[in-house]
Specification:
The longest helix is centred in the middle third of the chain and has 16 residues, at 191-206. The protein has helices at 57-60, 84-97, 105-118, 191-206, 252-263, 275-284, 323-335, and strands spanning 2-3, 28-35, 38-46, 64-66, 69-73, 79-82, 130-141, 151-161, 169-173, 211-215, 223-226, 230-235, 238-242, 268-271, 287-294, 298-307, 310-313, 346-348. The two termini are 13 Å apart. A hairpin with a 2-residue loop joins strand 12 (230-235) and strand 13 (238-242). It folds into two domains: 2-161, Aminotransferase class 4, branched-chain amino acid transferase, N-terminal domain (D-amino Acid Aminotransferase, Chain A, domain 1), CATH 3.30.470.10; 169-316, D-amino Acid Aminotransferase, Chain A, domain 2 (Alpha-Beta Barrel). The mean pLDDT is 96. Strands 1, 2, 3, 4, 5, 6, 7, 8 and 18 form a nine-stranded mixed sheet that branches. Strands 9, 10, 11, 12, 13, 14, 15, 16 and 17 form a nine-stranded mixed sheet that branches. It contains seven helices and 18 strands. It binds pyridoxal-5'-phosphate (PLP) and 2-OXO-4-methylpentanoic acid (COI).
């Protein structure tokens, strides 16, 4: 792998006291090209614009998949990745579904580790802050006919991150638009899944909601997930989340929360979860808490759930009484190397350079 370091670091301009997600990018990026049927030499180079043919399928047919992961610092400024092998596996599940070449493990892991090591000064130091890492794979060459590309580019970029949502969320249960359908690409991190969510989300934002709670596309009676998060409910003293299926992105945060909650002795269940169960829980008071979880957002609880024009408020609990708070703390403590990691989730970053 070639490493071309920047001669003009932008780190001096980075305001770590005022981090706004995605507004500044670390100095370097990782690029690996797939050409002539094989992966070519990789390079780490200064972050900058990229240029591809205007007929690249990424522009016309949305042949693009991505990942989201984070690097954290502990008190001694040692750096840790969280379950990176899960992102590696997921990007390849996505790639296969979009008829793209899979990224070899050594390219993904070496690229990731060396890039983050080189840009380790970009990782914020405070608890709850991190460096958000965005690996992505795009189709870069082809002819204009609707066919998969011959050439691809796998890249990794990163941006310092603080809390993605800074307040409790107002959520709308969606009954008109859909994020995914059976047999589709809902289980992947295909770029198009996000593009298609922007319009319905804008409409929901205009009604005063933060995010949409997606339901199944054929009946709109079953809960699936949020725009950028999986969802949990604390219902009848049980932590429940929709059972993963082809429509739902299988979240690494969700999976980790299930493991953590079980270890803490909470009763947990992944099940087919109906909208009516949730509404009943809101009406009877048996639904005490609801929250979304994901890499960017971590864990964020809901204040209001809206269904068919009725706004249901969730109990206004103190932090201490919130299962979401307790789980968030346990997760962040593991990520920041403040507690034991009995599950082997943390991967300490070596110093390569
Ligand atoms: N669902 C969607 C649609 C997402 O975009 C995300 C974020 O990546 C998640 C769920 C949560 O997944 P993870 O916890 O792996 O970040
Ligand atoms: C993530 O949590 O990694 C996401 O995918 C959210 C992102 C679209 C900002």
């Amino acid at each position: 792998m070639k490493i071309k370091k920047t001669l003009h670091s932008r780190i001096g301009k980075m305001d770590f006291n005022n981090i706004s997600f995605g507004s500044q990018y670390s100095d370097h990026m990782f690029c690996s090209e797939y050409k002539d049927g094989k992966w070519q030499d990789s390079i780490i180079k200064p972050f900058g614009n990229i240029m591809f043919s205007p007929v690249s399928p990424v522009f016309h047919y949305g042949q693009a998949v991505f990942e989201g992961m984070k690097a954290y610092k502990d008190k001694n400024e040692e750096v840790f990745l969280f379950r990176p092998e899960e992102n590696f596996k997921r990007i390849n599940r996505s790639a296969i579904r979009l008829e793209m070449p899979t990224v070899p493990e050594d390219i993904f892991m070496n690229g990731l580790k060396k890039l983050i090591d080189l840009d380790r000064d970009w990782i914020p130091k405070n608890y709850g802050q991190s460096l958000y890492i965005r690996p992505f794979l795009i189709a870069t060459n082809g002819v204009l006919s609707a066919k998969p590309s011959k050439d691809y580019m796998f890249m990794i970029i990163s941006t310092p991150a603080d809390a993605y949502y800074k307040h409790p969320m107002k959520i709308k249960i969606e009954e008109k638009y859909s994020r995914s359908a059976a047999g589709g690409v809902g289980f992947t991190k295909a770029a198009g899944n996000y593009a298609s969510s922007f319009y319905p989300t804008k409409l929901a934002n205009e009604e005063g909601f933060d995010q949409i709670l997606w339901t199944d596309s054929s009946t709109h009676t079953m809960i699936e997930e949020l725009g950028t998060m999986n969802v949990f409910f604390w219902l009848k003293n049980k932590l429940v989340t929709p059972k993963a299926n082809d429509n739902i992105l299988s979240g690494i945060t969700c999976k980790s929360i299930l493991t953590l909650a079980e270890k803490k002795g909470f009763s947990v269940e992944e099940k087919n979860l109906s909208v009516s169960e949730i509404i009943k829980g809101l009406q009877t008071g048996e639904l005490k808490e609801a929250f979304g979880c994901g890499t960017a957002a971590v864990i964020n609880f809901f204040k209001i759930i809206s269904y068919q024009g009725n706004n249901f408020s969730l109990p206004d609990l103190t932090e201490k009484k919130r299962i979401s708070f307790c789980l968030k703390k346990s997760l962040l403590d593991i990520q920041h190397n403040l507690s034991e990691d009995p599950f082997g989730w943390r991967v300490q970053l070596k110093r390569y350079l």
